[in-house]
Amino acid sequence: MTGAAELKEQGNKYFVARKYSDAIASYSKAIIKNGSIATYYTNRALCYLRLKKWDEAIKDCKNALELDANLVKAYYFLGEAYFEQNLFDEAINNLNKAYDLAKNQKLLFGDDISAALRKAKRKRFLALEEKRINQEIELQTYLKNLILQDKAKKLEEAQTSTEKDNIEDKNDSVIAELNDIFKQVDERRQARDVPDYLCGKISFELMRDPVITPDGITYDRKDIEEHLHRVGHFDPVTRQPLTSAQLIPNFAMKEVVDTYLQENPWAEEY
Question: With left for phi above 0 and alpha for psi between -120 and 50, is residue 18 left, alpha or beta?
Fold first, then answer.
């Protein structure tokens, strides 16, 4: 009789061969044999992700986390599934947990998680931006209608053609001013892009705690410390030996970043 471990290995072979449905069948049999192994559920969840069965993947990840609350892959796959469902807050929450656990457990796929996290944050930003654009369009339309209603009322009350011409001219001026205001808002939005010099050379995200190395390269502290911890004690750009003790806060860059955030609060969500 085939045991749970053998069925899991069989599922792994099917997965490598991209036979995801067969792999799911094998993992399911393994779970029936022994439902107390969390990785059986995450293995099956990954197959569901490949087949774009997001709900099934989410269910398996949650089952895995009930068995092992520190299972990195469960949070990672859960974040991926929520991302595909456009549930970006849930995706970011789970990917953050996966990232922190991977860092604490010194796992080697932390870069994959951080890449997924950046993607989820970017998509959330774009979704919020689209919502703001729609709200601004609705507001502009609403204000135009109010102006036109006011014009119609004043034209009814006007006694002479001169009064009517003045009302028309004033109305056109107000409409033009309103359009100009919203045009400026739109132009500022289109210019939203964080300058490269404010972004870290590892994560390419806006630096929050910039530090400088002896070679004069500035990194975000969390990124360079993770590199030193996981990859090796060298500068990723110059390849020169480097330790955490050699990192010096770059107060000038920090001031530039803080000023940029004050002037561009949208960048907090970028």
Answer: left
